[in-house]
Amino acid sequence: MTTDVFLFGTLRHDDLRAAVLNAAPAMSPATMAGHVQVDVQGYPVLVACDGAQAKGGLVALDASALARLDFYEGLFDYTRETATVLRDGAPVQAQVYRPGELPQVTDTRWEFTDWSARNADAAILAAHELFALAGVYAPEALKVRYPMLLAHAASQLRAGQAVQSATLRGDWGRDDVVSRQRMQPYAYFFGVQVDDLQFQRFDGSASNVVRRAGFVMSDAVTLLPYDPALDLVLVIEQFRYGPYMRGDANCWSLEPIAGRIDPGESPGECALREAQEEARLHLMQDALVPVGESYPSPGAISEYLYSFVALCDLSHADEGVAGLASEAEDIRSHVIPFERLMALIASGEVRNGPLIQTAYWLALNKARLQAR
Fold it and tell me: What b/e sequence results for 10-37 when a residue is b if at least 16 CB atoms lie within 10 Å of its CB, and e otherwise?
């Protein structure tokens, strides 16, 4: 026995649909009359619209595929309901997934081609990892984990496309590491990955099988706004859980603007977005000056940082409190002379690694940037 389901939006993509359903059932073109797909935080939502036709397709799913689809759509708070769709102009009763509570929508149309170009590859990787975890972790945990799975998948793709330099280090490849067994003993917002692996030694032999564990995180940016005319910088201050876990007496940290790179977003686009969210700074792409790229702690976490300085006018910068309420952010901005920042580093009040690294880079390059 099969159930007809009308799929629209991201699941029109053949490879993502195959990853979610663990099958490749035939899909016949279909439409839902009187509806349009609008963009809500990057995802398509069906909204009533007179005269419109929402494109999709009909698939006949068995119980196993339908259960996988219910699980996947449930991560987005979508549930099935019966609707009438058109196949070859004829009405057909089918199941369609709709949000339980319609979010606030805009007039922005969701475009399949745009999503495919920017997000499809990451969504496919994330779906495969999601279903590998589905038999181990509760849906409530994976609902929290999924956005980070998607961001990590985008990071994997970015890493695979990066040009690798090997002029001093050995010219190694991923084939020089063999994972004998992989586990993920923890999955919530962050994940923990454990590999029993062997790596090639410098003498050409394979190492013994060793166990390595680390936090699975995603790529991020850091940004230090700098006013070359007034020699001012903007740093932010916020509560940080890391110092709290360590037992620090003061868990509020002076830092650069920073944030995770969203899927489909470039490091530069992320830097501009975070500047607006965390410090109410509206910057242009040409304000960004790359400082470098780095793994802050390569022995334990997969996080990779793209660090920038932003050349801007800080004479009227807002020193108030900002941040996203949806992420419980409470972020205070400080505009201070660059000399004061260096004094704070020397005194130990600044203990954020990326801020120290960027400040010393700025000290070496200030004259060049001021000349610009």
Answer: bbbbeebbebbbeeeeebeebbbeebbb
Out of 3.40.50.1970, 3.10.20.30, 3.10.490.10, 1.10.3720.10, select the CATH number for domain 3-117.
3.10.490.10
Please give the average per-residue pLDDT across 323-328, as a whole number.
69
Spatial distance between the Cα atoms of 260 and 270, rounded to a whole number of angstroms: 7
Whether the CB-CB separation of 338 and 227 falls below 8 Å is answered with: no
What pLDDT does 297 receive? 94
The H or E element that residue 202 is part of is none
152: left (phi over 0), alpha (psi -120 to 50) or beta: alpha
**222 and 161 Cβ atoms separated by less than 8 Å:** no
Tell me 206's DSSP state.
B
- Residue 326 pLDDT greater than 70, yes or no: no
Active-site entry in 111, 129, 255, 327: 327
> Could you tell me where in the chain the CATH 3.90.79.10 domains are found?
220-371
What architecture is the 220-371 domain classified under in CATH?
Alpha-Beta Complex (3.90)
Active site residue 303: no
Query: What's the Rg (C-alpha) of the chain?
Result: 24
- For 172, other C-beta atoms within 10 Å of its C-beta total 12
Cα 136–139–144 angle (5° rounding)?
105
What's the CA gap between 227 and 74, in Å, rounded?
47
Tens digits of residue pLDDT in 259-299? 999 999 999 999 999 999 999 999 999 999 999 999 999 99
